[in-house]
Design brief:
The chain is of the alpha+beta class and 113 residues long. The protein has one domain. 14% of the residues lie in helices and 23% in strands. A five-stranded antiparallel sheet has the order 1-2-3-4-5, with helices on one face. The two termini are 24 Å apart.
């Protein structure tokens, strides 16, 4: 059995950037209203339309090993920088402090799994 496709009816294992980002934001005392998003290019050739920020945050994709499917982004708040990290197709969100010496520790989404 191969990796799930976007057309697969059983969507178990699929997620959205919002589901991954919100726990990190909450842990840092931040919320989506604090975020400025910068989106990258869609990493595959499926003629999928580019959506507005809220719609992109809720687009479902399979973040597991295989082909990178989530649209990359960098999200800024006054205290933090959140960014997509992909390794062998496994997609997570990482966080670093925006200002050195702030006392905040770098984190990534898998800390919450």
């Amino acid at each position: 059995m191969g990796w799930p496709s976007l057309e697969q009816k059983d969507r178990s294992g699929f997620t959205t950037w919002r589901r991954m980002l919100e726990p990190l934001l909450q842990d840092n005392g931040e919320c989506l209203e604090d975020v400025i998003m910068e989106w990258g290019e869609i990493p595959y050739e499926d003629n999928i339309p580019v959506l507005s920020d809220p719609e992109e945050l809720d687009r479902e994709f399979y973040p597991g090993f295989g082909t990178v499917r989530g649209r990359p982004f960098v999200a800024y708040t006054s205290r933090s920088i959140y960014f997509v990290h992909a390794y062998d197709g496994l997609e997570t969100i990482r966080h670093i402090p925006r200002n050195p010496g702030s006392g905040m520790k770098p984190r990534h989404y898998s800390d919450y799994l």
